Amino acid sequence: MTILHSREKLTLANELIYEIKVKDAMTREVIYFSEEATFREIQLAMKKNRISGVPILDEKKNIIGIVSIDNVITALDQNYVNDKVKDYMTKEVVTIPQNYSLVSAIKKFEQYKFGRLPVTENAHSHKIVGILTMGDILNRLLLNIQTIAENVEKKEDKNLQISEDLLKQAQQKPLRFEVKKADFDNAGRVASIIRNYLQKMNIDKQILRRVSIVCYEAEMNISIHSLGGYISVQIEGNNIIIIAVDYGPGIPDIEEAMKPGFTTASEQIRALGFGAGMGLPNIKKCADYLELESSMETGTILKAVIHLGG
User: Fold this and answer.
1) Which residue in 36, 6, 14, 30 sits closest to 217, CA to CA?
2) Quick one: 301 and 215 in the same domain?
3) Is the same domain home to 95 and 62?
4) Do 117 and 179 fall into the same domain?
5) Could you identify which of 32, 108, 213, 229 might form a hypothetical disulfide with 222, taking C-beta atoms 3.0 to 4.6 angstroms apart as the criterion?
6) 81 with 132, same domain?
7) Backbone φ, ψ for residue 24 (5° rounding)
8) Is 121 within 8 Å of 57 (Cβ atoms)?
9) Do 194 and 287 sit in the same domain of this protein?
10) Same structural domain for residues 37 and 84?
């Protein structure tokens, strides 16, 4: 399957949400309570700290529930505001691991419409290490954008000196990176390495953003939907060529898979903030040329080409 199309312009913010980790944006000082706390105590803490929810933790700092402003209002309306929260708190808590990228967090905010997400130590832990809000994300993006703007001039001369050697190396042989199945703690690692490498070549920032998104989405598709695979990147002439190969089980209907929102990811994967059905559409949007071949026996080969000329 070959796809040619017009592209939408990507912003620096698009790029950063794929690269910045949750741990870089979250608030580390967490206001929390035990299940023995009353709604009245939590109400006063929310008012004092101007927050809309608090996690409920056990003695080991593991999350066992959450109380939102809606829970407090209900307690006030139904006259049990002085009761302990353990019998009323929300026990099905949506969390996000600290090593996930901000794009995963944003997808969770869009999916669940929460005001805040408790941040866990890793994907297999219930220990809370922070709290993340959309305000935290915006603040971190603004800080990074300001820092990037301040450092651009300082890096230009240094990048110019080394770019020719790197360009020659990238033209001689592809850079290849293995991607493991369900390796969500390292989500975006390959995309970040590739971007950092290409950044040293003085490649246009708009092109780098598109490369980053293609590599990230390809990496996550391999991790979510296959038994593993690899991504390779090479510069040929005026093109950056990205090849993503996975080891099965293949895509049953490529045209269906290209539709925004279509996904075969399990509920468990989607609960982690992945598999929203935007991977291939995002790759299509960022690539100047796209080929996709898939077999239920041998897996999937994706080839995306991005012109260095923009």
Assistant:
1) 14
2) yes
3) yes
4) no
5) 229
6) yes
7) -80, -20
8) no
9) yes
10) yes
pTM: 0.55
Task: Give the chain's end-to-end CA distance (angstroms, integer).
Answer: 23
121 with 180, same domain?
A: no
pLDDT of the chain, 310 residues: tens digit per residue: 444 444 444 566 677 788 889 999 999 999 999 999 999 999 999 999 988 899 999 999 999 999 999 999 999 999 999 999 999 999 999 999 999 989 889 888 888 888 899 999 998 899 999 999 988 998 888 787 767 666 654 554 444 344 455 555 555 677 888 888 877 777 778 888 888 888 777 788 888 888 888 998 888 888 888 888 889 898 888 899 999 998 877 777 677 767 766 565 555 555 555 555 577 888 888 999 999 888 777 788 899 999 987 5
Residue (of 93, 90, 91, 119) closest to 105 by Cα position: 119
Residue 152, Cβ neighbours under 10 Å: how many?
Answer: 11
Task: Give the residue from 184, 175, 212 showing the smallest Cα distance to 16.
Answer: 212
What are the helix (H) ranges across the chain? 12-19, 22-25, 39-49, 69-77, 102-112, 134-172, 189-199, 205-225, 254-257, 267-271, 279-286
Q: How far apart are CA 23 and CA 117, in angstroms?
A: 12
Number of H helices, E strands in the chain: 11, 11
